[in-house]
Amino acid sequence: MKFIVLVACLLAFTYANEDAEIVKSESEVNVEDFKYALELTNHIKAFQEGHLQDKDNWVVKGEYEFVSKEGKHVKVTYTADDHGYHPTVEQ
């Protein structure tokens, strides 16, 4: 479930930047693991990978970065597991 929420958030983030072109798009999806990377011309980058820890729980790690409206570089690194979503923000 967390996997679906995280992917949906990143897709919404991408669609909100419709004027940007895709520079890099890679994905590998298997039954028990996945990973993908995305890079856009407007300096947005995202990477995520995860694996099925047990029958019902995914462990997901990833990061995304962008340039804020104020011109600052922002990078968010996160993990998500059965204990929740754990982000670290660097500015």
From TrEMBL:
User: What Gene Ontology terms describe what this protein does at the molecular function level?
Assistant: structural constituent of cuticle
Keyword Calcium in annotation: no
Taxonomic superkingdom = Eukaryota
The region annotated as signal peptide is 1-16
- Keywords assigned: Cuticle, Signal
Xref: Pfam families: Chitin_bind_4 (PF00379)
PROSITE patterns in the cross-refs: CHIT_BIND_RR_1, CHIT_BIND_RR_2
The UniProt entry, under InterPro entries, shows: CHIT_BIND_RR_consensus, Insect_cuticle
**Does Transit peptide show up as a keyword for this record?**
no
* Name used for this protein in its record: Larval cuticle protein 9
* Source organism of the structure: Stomoxys calcitrans (Stable fly)
